[in-house]
Amino acid sequence: MFIVMSISTENMCGGRFHIHLRDTFAPQVVRYVDLMESAIGQSLQKGFERERWEVRRNFGCATTDELFWKLDALQTFISDLHWPDEMFAKHLDQRLKLLACEMLESLLHRTLGAFQAWEKKGGRFGNVTDYIIPAEMCVMVNVVLETRNQSLKLCTFDGMDMVGYS
Predict the structure, then answer these.
(1) Does the N terminus or the C terminus of the chain have fewer Cβ atoms within 10 A?
(2) CA distances from 53 to 48, 69, 92, 136, 148 (A)
C-alpha cells in the first residue's frame, strides 16, 4: 500500500528540513570554493613555470585555456546548485567573480612579465628597422586579448565588470 502525500515547495521553503539542509551544506560549499580557489591558484603558478607559449585553442596558451575552463566550470557548478538562500547565492556568485578577477589579473601580470623577458632577448636581425616578432610573443598578445574577452564572461557581476575593482 502506498501513501501519496502532496507536498508543495511552498511548504518546504523555510521549513525545518529546508533549514537543516541549508545549514548542513553551506559550510561544505564554502569549503569547496576555498579548496578550488587554492587549487586554481597553484595550477596557474605551475602552468606559468612550464609554459611554452605555443598556440592552443582560442588563440591562447595551455595555461590560459586550462584557467578559463576551470573558472567557468566552478562558476557553472555553483550556479547549478540553485542555492535557495538568495543572500548566500549572491555572496557565492560575487566571490567567484572576484576570484576570477584576481586570477585573470595575475594571468595578465605574469604574461606581461614573460612578454618583457622576450622583448629583452631582442629580435633585431638584418636592417636596423627590421624587427622580427617571435611566435611566442604573438601568443602572449593573444592571451591578453582573450583574457579581456573572458573577463566579460567570468568577472561581470550585476552588469559591472569587476576587473580593476579587486
Answers:
(1) N
(2) 9, 18, 33, 5, 18
